[in-house]
C-alpha cells in the first residue's frame, strides 16, 4: 500500500492515517491523522473522553485500531502489542496502571528493560538517572509504599532508561513541584535535541505553550485543529479544545471569624508502613467559611495526614484531632462523618468509589446517613437513585446514569461525581485530596468552583494538592507539608508560588511563626 | 522418648510431609502467576493412578513417576484451556477438575484395586546417614524426598532471584500492567499452571508408588485440599509451605503414635485426628500475621481472568 518515502531526511518519525477505533458503545477515535517529526515535541490536547488515551494506546500497541494505518519512520507497521512498540523504539509513561505494587522500584524497572542487567548495576543506573533528571526515588523501596507522585517518577525513570526514539507522556507533570517540572522540561528538550520525538498529553495549557513545538487538538474522537502553541494563548487553545471559553473561578474574600471546624493540635503519629512518613507535631485550624490548602511534594506525609483526619487510621489519643470541637482522635471514619466530616480521597477507584458498583450504590456508601437514603434500617434504592441522579445533573457528570458502573466513567467525570456526592451532603467540614488530579481544564474549573461555593455557604474546606496553581486559585490560606511536619498556614495574599516552592523543601521560617499560629499552638 | 522412637517418628514425619511439599510448591507457583487451581485433589488422584498403572506394567517406579507427572500436566492443560483460553471462572473450573479427577481415577483404577507393588528401596546417602538420631531419618529416604528438598530450593531461588520468577510474580500481581510492558501473560500463566499440574501429579505418584505402594479408591484422602490451604496460610512463601507441611506431617504422626500406643487417655480419638489440621492452621496464621508481608506476597490478581484488550 505504502512504500518508504524516497525523500529521507524529511521522513516523519510517526505518521497515523485515518485511525478509527470503535468500542461496542462508542466511537473513541474517528479518522485521526497525526504526524510527528524526529525531535519534535508534539502536544495532544483534549478534554477527558476526547480519545487521547485511546489513540496513545493504539500507538503503543495496547489496543488495536479498527481501521487506519500506522507508519513508523516511513514504513507501514502493525503494532500488535507493546513488546513490538518497544522493539520499534516507542516508550510510554502511563498515567495510571503499569507499576507492580508488590515489587521494588528496581524490580519494576528491570521488568521493563530488555536484557538482564544485574540488580545492583540497575540500582546504580536508576540512582544516576533520578539524580540527573531531578526525580528522587529510592530504588529499593516497594511501589505500594510510594505516593502517586513518586510512582509517576518511577514511570518516567523506567522510560528514560530505555532510550526511546518516541516517548509518549500521559500527563507527566500533574504531580511534580514547579522546580521539578522545569527540570523535566530541560530533560525533554535535551531528548528532543538528541532527536527523540515526544508525544505530550496534558491539559495544562501554559505548559504546552512553554514546551511543545506543535499541537493537535482532539474533541469527541476527531481532530478539530492544529496549532503552534508558541503562537497561541492558553485562552485560544482552551477554546479549540472545549469549543467555548474557559470558565473562570469567582473567588470573593473569605468570611472571617468562623468557628474552628477542624483543629489539629500536636498531631504526631508513627506510620505503620516501614517506608511511610511519620507525622510530627502538626498544628492547624480550619475555620468555617475558609479554604485552607496544604501544598507539598507527594510522599511527605500527605497520605498519613489524610488517614489521620479521615479516621482510616485512628491515633493513640483523642485530643490531637478535633472535628467541630469534638475530640475525634479515637473515632472511626463513620463516627467522624457523623460529626459533619466529608472526605474526597486521592484515589478515585478503590477508595473514592467501588469500581464495579453502580453510581447509585456508590452514593449510598458515604451518603446513606447524611442524605437520608436509609428508611427504618432498610436502604431506599429509589432515593439512592434519585440522589445519584441529582448529583449527576448538578455536577454535569457524563455517564450512563445512576445505574452505570463507577469504572465505566472517565477519570474527570468520576471525580465530579465523587466531589458532588460529598458536597450534596452539605458537610460542615470537607477534606479533599488532589481534587483535580488528571482532570481536564473544564472539569477542574468546575470542581474548584464547587469547592469555593461550598466555602461561601459556610463550610470549612481543607484541600491537599500538589498543584500549586490550583491552591493559589482557590485557597484563603496555604500551609506546606514536608517530611511529616507542617508549616504555619499563611494567607495567600502574603505569599507567592516561589516562597511556597522553597518551603516545600522544609525550609520555612520556623523561628518566627505568624502570630495566629502561636495562638493556635498555645490553645 | 528413646532415640529409636524419635528417629522413627522423624522418618515418618518427613515421609508424610513430602507429598504436601511437592504439591503445595507447584500450586504456589501457579498461584503466584495469578491462577487459582482448586483441582489439586483431582490432579493428584490422576497422577497417583497413572503412576501406579505404569509402575505395575513396567516394574519401573521412575517411569511411574514420569507418568504421574504427565497425567497431572494433562489435567492442568484442560484447566488452562478452560480458564486461560476460554476465560471460564477459575474457582468453578477447579472444583469441577477436582471432582472429575477423583472420579476418573477411581474408574481407571478399578482393575488395580487391592493390587500391591513391591516396596521401592530407599536411597542411603553415605556418611551423613550415619549421623546419630537424624541421619537414618533424613538421609536414608526415598528419591522423591530428596527431590522435594531440591524443589524447595529451586522454587525459592526462582521466585526471589531469577528474572523469570520476577516476571511470573508481575503477571500474578497485575496482568494488565505486565501486558502493557510486553509480556505474554496468557503463555506465562499456562506454563505456571502446567508446572502446578506436573507437581500435583508427582505428589500423587509418591502416594501410590512409594508411600503406600498399592491402589485404593480415594487414597489421596484430601491431601490436595490440604496443600491448597497450606499455600494460603503460608501466605505464598515457600519456606512457610515447608514448615507447614512438616508440621502437619509431624502432628499427624504423633497423634497416630499416641492412638496406636494404647495409652489410656481421656481425649476422644476424633479430637486427636483433627489435631494436625487445626494445629497447622493456627501456627501458620500466627507466624504469618504481619499485614505488610501478606500484602507483599499475596498475588493481587489471584483467581481473576485476564484477556488482552483486542
UniProtKB/TrEMBL annotation, chain A:
Superkingdom of this protein's organism: Bacteria
GO MF term set: ATP binding; ATP hydrolysis activity
Organism name: Pseudothauera nasutitermitis
Lineage summary: Bacteria, Pseudomonadati, Pseudomonadota, Betaproteobacteria, Rhodocyclales
Entry-linked Gene3D superfamilies: P-loop containing nucleotide triphosphate hydrolases
UniProt KW Repeat keyword: yes
Pfam families attached to this UniProt entry: ABC_tran
Keyword presence, Acetylation: no
Stated name of the protein: ABC transporter ATP-binding protein
InterPro entries membership: AAA+_ATPase, ABC_carbohydrate_import_ATPase, ABC_transporter-like_ATP-bd, ABC_transporter-like_CS, P-loop_NTPase
Keyword annotations of the record: ATP-binding, Cell membrane, Membrane, Nucleotide-binding, Repeat, Sugar transport, Transport
Stored PANTHER family: CARBOHYDRATE TRANSPORT ATP-BINDING PROTEIN MG119-RELATED (PTHR43790), GUANOSINE IMPORT ATP-BINDING PROTEIN NUPO (PTHR43790:SF4)
SUPFAM superfamilies documented for this protein: P-loop containing nucleoside triphosphate hydrolases
Residue ranges of domain ABC transporter in the record: 14-245, 262-508
UniProtKB/TrEMBL annotation, chain B:
UniProt keyword Cell membrane present: yes
Higher taxonomy: Bacteria, Pseudomonadati, Pseudomonadota, Betaproteobacteria, Rhodocyclales
Location relative to the cell: Cell membrane
Record carries keyword Magnesium: no
GO cellular component, one term: plasma membrane
Main location class: membrane
GO MF terms held by the record: transmembrane transporter activity
UniProt entry keywords in alphabetical sequence: Cell membrane, Membrane, Transmembrane, Transmembrane helix
One Pfam family per UniProt: BPD_transp_2
Membrane topology field: Multi-pass membrane protein
Protein name: ABC transporter permease
Chain segments annotated as transmembrane: 6-28, 35-56, 62-84, 91-109, 143-160, 181-208, 214-234, 241-258, 270-287
Amino acid at each position: 500500500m505504502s512504500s518508504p518515502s524516497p525523500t529521507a531526511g524529511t521522513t516523519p518519525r510517526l505518521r497515523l492515517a485515518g485511525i478509527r477505533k470503535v468500542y461496542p458503545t462508542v466511537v473513541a477515535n474517528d479518522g485521526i491523522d497525526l504526524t510527528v517529526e524526529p525531535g519534535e515535541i508534539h502536544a495532544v490536547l483534549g478534554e477527558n473522553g476526547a480519545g487521547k488515551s485511546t489513540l496513545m494506546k493504539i500507538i503503543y500497541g495496547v489496543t488495536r485500531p479498527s481501521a487506519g494505518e500506522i507508519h513508523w519512520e516511513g514504513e507501514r507497521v502493525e503494532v500488535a502489542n507493546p513488546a513490538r512498540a518497544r522493539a520499534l523504539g516507542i516508550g510510554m509513561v502511563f498515567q495510571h496502571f503499569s507499576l507492580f505494587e508488590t515489587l521494588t522500584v528496581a524490580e519494576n524497572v528491570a521488568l521493563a528493560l530488555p536484557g538482564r542487567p544485574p540488580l545492583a548495576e540497575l540500582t546504580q543506573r536508576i540512582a544516576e538517572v533520578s539524580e540527573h533528571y531531578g526525580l528522587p526515588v529510592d530504588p529499593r523501596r516497594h511501589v505500594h509504599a510510594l505516593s502517586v507522585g513518586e510512582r509517576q517518577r518511577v514511570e518516567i525513570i523506567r522510560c528514560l532508561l530505555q532510550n526511546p526514539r518516541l516517548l509518549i507522556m500521559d500527563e507527566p507533570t500533574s504531580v511534580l513541584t514547579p522546580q521539578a517540572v522545569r527540570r523535566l522540561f530541560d530533560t525533554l528538550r535535551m531528548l528532543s535535541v538528541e532527536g527523540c520525538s515526544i508525544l505530550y498529553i496534558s491539559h495544562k495549557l501554559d505548559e504546552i505553550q512553554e514546551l511543545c513545538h506543535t499541537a493537535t487538538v482532539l474533541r469527541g474522537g476527531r481532530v478539530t485543529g492544529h496549532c503552534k502553541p508558541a503562537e497561541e494563548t492558553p485562552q485560544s487553545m482552551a477554546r479549540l479544545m472545549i469549543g467555548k471559553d474557559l470558565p473562570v473561578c469567582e473567588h470573593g474574600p473569605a468570611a472571617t471569624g468562623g468557628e474552628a471546624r477542624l483543629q489539629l493540635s500536636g498531631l504526631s503519629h508513627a506510620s505503620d508502613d516501614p517506608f511511610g512518613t511519620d507525622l510530627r507535631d502538626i498544628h492547624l485550624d480550619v475555620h468555617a467559611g475558609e479554604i485552607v490548602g496544604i501544598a507539598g511534594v507527594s510522599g511527605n506525609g500527605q497520605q498519613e495526614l489524610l488517614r489521620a483526619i479521615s479516621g482510616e487510621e485512628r491515633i493513640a489519643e483523642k485530643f490531637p484531632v478535633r472535628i467541630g470541637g469534638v475530640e475525634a482522635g479515637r473515632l472511626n471514619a463513620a463516627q467522624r462523618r457523623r460529626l459533619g466530616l466529608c472526605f474526597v480521597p486521592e484515589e478515585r477507584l478503590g477508595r473514592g468509589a467501588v469500581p464495579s458498583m453502580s453510581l447509585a450504590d456508590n452514593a449510598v456508601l458515604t451518603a446513606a446517613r447524611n442524605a437520608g437514603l436509609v428508611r427504618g434500617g432498610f436502604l431506599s434504592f429509589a432515593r439512592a437513585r434519585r440522589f445519584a441522579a441529582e448529583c449527576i445533573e448538578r455536577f454535569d457528570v457524563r455517564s450512563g446514569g445512576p445505574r452505570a458502573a463507577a469504572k465505566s466513567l472517565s477519570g474527570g467525570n468520576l471525580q465530579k461525581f465523587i466531589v458532588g456526592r460529598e458536597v450534596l451532603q452539605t458537610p460542615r467540614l470537607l477534606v479533599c485530596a488532589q481534587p483535580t488530579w488528571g482532570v481536564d481544564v473544564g472539569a477542574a474549573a468546575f470542581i474548584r468552583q464547587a469547592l469555593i461555593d461550598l466555602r461561601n455557604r459556610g463550610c470549612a474546606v481543607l484541600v491537599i494538592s500538589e498543584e500549586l496553581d490550583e491552591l493559589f486559585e482557590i485557597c484563603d490560606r496555604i500551609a506546606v507539608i514536608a517530611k511529616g511536619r507542617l508549616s504555619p498556614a499563611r494567607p495567600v495574599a502574603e505569599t507567592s508560588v516561589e516562597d511556597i516552592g522553597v518551603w516545600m523543601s522544609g525550609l520555612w521560617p520556623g523561628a518566627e511563626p505568624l502570630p495566629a499560629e502561636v495562638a493556635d499552638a498555645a490553645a | 522418648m528413646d532415640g529409636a522412637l524419635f528417629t522413627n517418628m522423624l522418618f515418618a514425619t518427613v515421609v508424610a510431609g513430602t507429598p504436601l511439599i511437592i504439591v503445595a510448591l507447584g500450586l504456589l507457583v501457579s498461584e503466584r502467576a495469578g491462577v487459582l487451581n482448586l483441582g489439586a485433589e483431582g490432579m493428584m488422584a490422576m497422577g497417583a493412578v497413572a503412576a501406579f498403572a505404569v509402575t505395575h506394567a513396567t516394574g519401573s517406579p521412575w517411569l511411574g513417576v514420569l507418568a504421574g507427572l504427565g497425567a497431572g500436566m494433562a489435567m492442568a492443560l484442560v484447566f488452562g484451556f478452560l480458564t486461560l483460553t476460554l476465560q471460564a471462572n477459575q474457582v468453578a473450573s477447579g472444583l469441577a477438575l477436582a471432582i472429575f479427577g477423583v472420579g476418573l481415577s477411581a474408574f481407571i483404577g478399578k482393575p488395580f484395586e487391592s493390587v500391591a507393588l513391591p516396596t521401592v528401596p530407599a536411597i542411603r546417602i553415605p556418611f551423613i546417614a550415619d549421623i546419630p538420631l537424624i541421619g537414618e531419618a533424613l538421609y536414608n529416604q526415598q528419591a522423591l524426598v530428596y527431590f522435594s528438598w531440591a524443589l524447595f530450593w529451586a522454587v525459592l531461588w526462582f521466585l526471589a532471584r531469577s528474572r523469570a520468577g520476577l516476571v511470573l510474580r508481575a503477571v500474578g500481581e497485575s496482568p494488565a500492567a505486565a501486558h502493557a510492558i510486553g509480556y505474554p501473560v496468557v503463555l506465562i500463566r499456562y506454563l505456571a499452571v502446567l508446572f502446578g499440574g506436573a507437581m500435583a501429579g508427582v505428589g500423587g505418584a509418591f502416594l501410590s508408588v512409594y508411600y503406600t505402594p498399592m491402589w485404593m479408591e480415594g487414597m489421596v484422602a484430601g491431601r490436595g485440599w490440604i496443600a491448597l490451604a497450606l499455600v494460603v496460610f503460608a501466605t505464598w512463601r515457600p519456606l512457610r509451605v515447608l514448615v507447614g507441611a512438616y508440621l502437619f506431617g509431624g502432628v499427624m504422626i504423633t497423634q497416630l503414635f499416641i492412638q496406636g500406643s494404647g495409652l489410656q487417655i481421656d481425649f476422644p480419638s476424633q479430637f486427636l485426628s483433627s489435631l494436625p489440621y487445626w494445629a497447622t492452621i493456627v501456627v501458620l496464621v500466627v507466624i504469618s500475621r504481619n499485614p505488610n508481608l501478606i500484602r507483599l506476597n499475596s498475588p493481587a490478581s489471584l483467581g481473576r481472568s485476564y484477556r488482552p484488550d483486542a
